[in-house]
Design brief:
11 helices, 10 strands, single chain, 50% helix, 6-stranded mixed sheet, 4-stranded mixed sheet, alpha/beta, 2-enoyl-CoA Hydratase, Chain A, domain 1
């Protein structure tokens, strides 16, 4: 049986490929468990400095496998209960790891695929690809952190419109609304995402990790508490070898060399 998640290492960059192309990479329980496990392993792998997630075939990810859910022995409610738990584990790994995670959206990203893409730090989307939240058109509500991240990207009013009407969102519209970082020509999403990951790998991973954590936590932290976390992070970065190198390079008027 083919591996439903394939991981490819290219130097410091790990590419995670969702590999059920015949189902547009829709998640069943085994597949989402494998994705969460791979992300956990990559998060603590010191040789990996950036992660790209994409899909094999014509789609990024069509969401949860509804046929699998309907056929689940304990029924669809139980199926979604266990499926969402593993999806949320994967999303938390993405949001909590100090490494940049880039979604290369090479085709349809719907349902859980939509939420997975939103959870990533950056989203590169091919020109012909489409985003759909899809849940509400099937009588469901969004999981995978989608209801948390979506209004923070597009605003509450726009998020409600997307939830209520479930419009197909083109790459051009997604870029205008701030849902994606860049629009890429068809067939080049993965290539450009790996290139972006390589560019980020040359920058300070410690600085990125602190900044990512502070931005993520800013939505549910009191202002005074957040200011103190910023101060702790700034001081910690200054004491880190990357911070010392960055300050020395500034004084010496040269380009810093991080992550040595």
């Amino acid at each position: 049986m083919a591996e439903t998640i394939r991981v490819r290492l290219d130097g410091q960059i790990a590419t995670v490929l969702l590999n059920r192309p015949e189902a547009f990479n829709a998640f069943d329980l085994e597949m989402i468990e494998r994705l969460a496990n791979h992300l956990m392993a990559l998060a603590v792998d010191d040789t990996v400095r950036g992660i790209v997630i994409s899909g094999e075939g014509k789609g990024f990810c069509a969401g949860g496998d509804l046929k699998w859910a309907v056929g689940y022995p304990q029924g669809p409610a139980a199926a979604f209960h266990v499926l969402a738990a593993r999806l949320h584990q994967a999303v938390l790994e993405i949001r909590r790891m100090a490494k940049p995670v880039i979604a290369a959206v090479n085709g349809i990203a719907a349902g859980a695929g939509f939420s997975l893409a939103l959870a990533c730090d950056f989203r590169l989307m091919t020109r012909s690809a489409v985003l759909r939240q899809a849940y509400t058109s099937n009588g469901l509500c969004i999981d995978g952190g989608g209801t948390f991240i979506l209004p923070r990207l597009v605003g509450l009013a726009r998020a409600l419109e997307i939830v209520a009407f479930d419009p197909p969102i083109s790459s051009e519209q997604a870029l205008t609304w701030g849902l994606v970082t860049r629009v890429i020509e068809d067939g080049r999403a993965l290539e450009e995402a790996v290139k972006m990951a390589g560019e980020l790998a040359s920058r300070s991973l410690n600085s990125f990790g602190w900044s990512k954590q502070l931005l993520t936590d800013s939505f549910n932290t009191a202002f005074e508490t957040h200011l103190e976390r910023e101060r702790t992070g700034l001081s910690g970065c200054a004491a880190h070898p990357d911070g010392q190198e960055g300050l020395a390079a500034f004084v010496e008027k040269r380009k810093p060399v991080f992550n040595r």
